[in-house]
Structures are given as C-alpha cells and as structure tokens.
Amino acid sequence: MCTVCGCGEGETRLEGEGKGHDHEHAHSHGEDAHHRHDTHHYGRGPAHAHAPGVSQTRMVRIEQDILARNDAYARANRSRLARAGILALNLVSSPGSGKTTLLTRTLRDLQGEMPLAVIEGDQETVNDAEQIRATGVQALQINTGKGCHLDAHMVGHALDELRPKAQSILFIENVGNLVCPAAFDLGEAQKVLILSVTEGEDKPLKYPHMFHAADLLLLNKIDLLPHLDFDVARCEEYARRINPEIPILPLSARTGEGMESWYRWLRLARESRLLGRTPLAGETA
Predict the structure, then answer these.
(1) CA-to-CA distance for 177 and 112, rounded, in angstroms?
(2) 148 pLDDT higher than 90
(3) Are 246 and 279 in contact (CB under 8 A)?
(4) Is the dihedral of CA 68, 74, 79, 80 positive or negative?
(5) Rounded distance, CA 66 to CA 234, Å?
(6) The pairing of beta strand 39-41 with beta strand 34-36
(7) In 167-252, alpha helices (H)
(8) Which of 54-63, 149-158, 190-199, 204-213 has the lowest mean pLDDT?
(9) What structural domains and CATH numbers belong to the chain?
(10) At what angle do helices 259-275 and 99-110 cross, to 10 degrees?
C-alpha cells in the first residue's frame, strides 16, 4: 500500500501546470511481516503497508497520520461537492478492464441529458483526457508519476482547475490498481468498481479490500463470455462473500448490452444527490 515510502512524492502534475504537488505516499516490506507456511502476510495496519527496517507499530502510526490528512481533504471535497449538488463517482479497476471505453460510451450517451465532467488519473500521458474531451465533455488529467493512485489533495486541486457545473456527475477515473485506491477516500459519493470477464472470477477473493469498499460492481466485457472460461455466477458469489449488499451489473461497453441498467443507476444516484443538495449562490464546485 503506498502510504509511507514516498514513491512519486512531488511528481504529481495537473494538466497545464508546470510543477507538481507534494504527495505523501508509500510501498513497503517490513521486518514484522507475518509468515505462516508458504504464505507471507504483510501490512496489518489500516492501509496494509510494509517497509524494510520499519516496525509494524511505527508503520501503523505513519499510515494513520497520512490517511488522517487525506481524510481531512476528502471531507472538504465531499462538502464542496454536496453543496454544488455534484455526484462524484470514483471509478476503480485493474488496468485493461475497459474503464475508459466504458466511460467514453457513457459520456456520449448521457451528455445531452445532464452536465458531466471527468478527472482522469494516470501515471503518465494525457491520452485518456484527450479521448474524453473528444466526446465534448470537460476533462482534466492528473499524472501521478510513480504514484499508483489519486488522493483527496490531488482531487481538490483538480476541482479548482476544472470547476465542474452544479448538479453534474463528476467521474473520477482512478489509476488502474485494485490495491492502493481502496484506502484513499477522494471525497466521492460512491466507488464504482469495474471488473472485466477477462480477469478471472476469483478477483474478489484476491483483492477483498477493494471489493469491500465498492458501492457498485460493473462486470464488463460480457460480449467475450462465449470465448472465455469465466463463471459469472461464481464471480458474483465471491463478490458477495466479501460485500454481501453490493449491486452487480453485467454489461458490455463495446456492444451496449446492459448499459441501460448502468444509466438507470446513474440517474437514480444523481436524483438522490440533488434531493439532498444545499442551495448554492454559485454555479460551480
């Protein structure tokens, strides 16, 4: 878990800025790692980190401090977004899940119906942000350098630059990673986890923290099922073993199958956000 080693510290860049933002952050292998038979368990703290030469007690204190600071930024983001009636969704997945393709299709299909905006997170390049902007939707790229996830401080700066419209849906496409983003609250209303059927049905058991943190699971690329040995029912059972109440929507961003269920979920989530909105003087977050 990247909370203590400092990988990527100072390398974060918002598109259009000449310098990065400091970012506390870490990956580690500890002397207090737990060993049993052929399984080595590292990182027993809240962010599940480990580092060479650092005791687990000290690691937990470092993690708690970093996550506490992140949570403070997240609370500020959440309050700001709520006042503007903006539904912020943190999109998380492994690399190659079809997250950007899913997002691009969603934007094309819904942009005439409601205001939309995107914050893109990648280690390098502005490729995804350019792909998003080609749909006509405003987007801002965050490059995290060596960092493997977005954090609330980065998102706060991105909100300053992007200024999404009031009552919009803000999609925050996190860096492709099923580990680190689980621990970092961005101030979003909900986490949406995308899992493709090409990844294997046991992903929920391998990455339980992310599946436990998710509010919705989108099972993508179902058009490929005839060509794969993937058991949908088993995958759903594993996911609900970790998160019993998680809604699961099978779909294909390529063919459009199941996308209307996703759009229905978005409309209901946005409606719920608007019902709880505090009136604003301004029109942006």
Answers:
(1) 31
(2) no
(3) no
(4) positive
(5) 37
(6) antiparallel
(7) 203-206, 208-213, 232-242
(8) 54-63
(9) 13-70 (no CATH), 80-275 (3.40.50.300)
(10) 70
Rounded CA-CA distance 266/110 in Å is: 10
Q: Which residue has the tokens 């300053």?
A: 160
Smallest CA-to-CA distance from 242 within 281, 271, 209 is with: 209
**Quick check: 205 and 123 in contact, CB under 8 A?**
no
Buried b (16+ CB within 10 A) or exposed e, 183-204: bbbbbbbebbbbbbbbbebebb
pLDDT in tens, 1-24: 565 544 555 566 777 765 455 544
Share of the chain above pLDDT 70, in %: 78
Tokens of 86: 């903006």
Locus of tokens 């059927």: 197
With a cut of 90, say whether residue 30 has pLDDT above it: no
Question: Please, what is the end-to-end C-alpha distance for the chain in angstroms?
Answer: 30
Mean pLDDT of 90-114: 97
Place of tokens 């849906």: 169
Neighbouring CB atoms inside 10 A of 1's CB total 27
pLDDT band at 51 (very low <50, low <70, confident <90, very high): low
User: 113-144 pLDDT, tens per residue?
Assistant: 999 999 999 887 788 889 999 999 999 999 98
